[in-house]
Specification:
Blueprint: H1 17-22, E1 51-53, H2 54-58, H3 64-79, E2 82-86, H4 92-106, H5 110-113, E3 125-127, E4 142-149, H6 166-191, H7 200-203, E5 208-216, E6 226-231, E7 237-241, E8 249-253, E9 256-259, E10 267-271, H8 273-278, E11 288-291, E12 298-306, E13 312-313, E14 331-332, H9 338-343
Parallel strand pairs: 1-2
Antiparallel strand pairs: 2-10, 3-4, 4-5, 5-12, 6-11, 7-10, 7-12, 8-9, 8-11, 13-14
Helix pairs in contact: 3-6, 4-6
Bound molecules: 2-oxoglutaric acid and fe (ii) ion.
Fe (ii) ion is lined by residues 231, 233, 288.
Amino acid sequence: MAPTATALKSEELALSVEELSIEGNNPPKNYVVKDSESINSSRLPLLEVPTIDIGLLCSSSSSFQVEEELKKLRSALSSFGYIQAVNHGMSTSFLDEVLEVTRRFFKLPLEEKKKYSREENEIDGYGNDIVYTHNQTLDWNDRLYLHLLPESIRKFEKWPQVPDNFRKIFLEFTEKLKIVNEVIVKAMAKSLKLEENCFLDQFGKNPIALTRLNFYPPCPWPDRILAAKPHGDASGTTYLLQDKEVEGLQVLKDEQWYRVPLTPDAMVFNVGDQLEIMTNGIFKSPVHRVATNKERERMTLALFFSPELTSEIKPAIGLIDDKNPRLYNNIIDYGRNYFEQLQNGNKPIDALKVRRH
Ligand SMILES: O=C(O)CCC(=O)C(=O)O
Ligand SMILES: [Fe+2]
């Protein structure tokens, strides 16, 4: 998933969002959303995100309860692509620890964090948006990207040494979430009456796990700047640990923006673009964005699972027939052009739509 185009450089762009939040009186122009009206700061409705019991999905029997859970999963993923995963086998205290090491990293002095700065044209490391074009709108977000799987692509030099349990906690989290992910990806197939490994096989033997730790400093201009611009995730599947107190995530459903509620003890799960392709558009990779907050900072942790780079992903045969034509072309390494497309204002998945005349 390496960015392909050469990134542009400029003085203002080299500052972290944290630095910008303490500087100056005017909004930095590269961050101001061109069509500010679209931010719509009036209070948005809250999305009802169904709770899915992962323990039930693991069970090999097909009881009434399991069938009901699969129906609920299918319904949520085909209407807006989000669920809250509960009973996932990770204790609240463990998830709190994951968020706590994340918080402790972002609370380090800037000079400390900059020791882990992302190199140009790389993904792993600390920094903000890669800049491809001068009129790109930047996100009010400092982040740390780290590849977690496969082991061979970990860049430990970008992994924080402080707090000193960072590495241990993230390795444990990765192992645990990998198991949850297999359960959910299999359940997605079962809920569509497909063979359970149908999507998991497309991830290949060495799926990719990438985490993105997000820090959103308070922003003096919440009506003009977004913490993350609208996007669908490039992943196969995405898991999000949300800030415990500060909302910000919003989802587009039927052309209306909704707030995603805070989910204590639950993980938010959403379909990524690559699972939308594999399900031939039945499951939706939701377009989401993050609002800025004038008073409060926010921290979240996203973890993305994606097929290995050599795997050709494709809509499952069992989902295509005369009534349901193929919607997407096959693709290898979906992430390769994703960032550049997104930063150029495109919706990357649209490039794969089958064109009919
Ligand atoms: O911070 C959030 O609530 C969402 C983050 C997100 O969408 C991402 O990292 O892709
Ligand atoms: Fe996202």
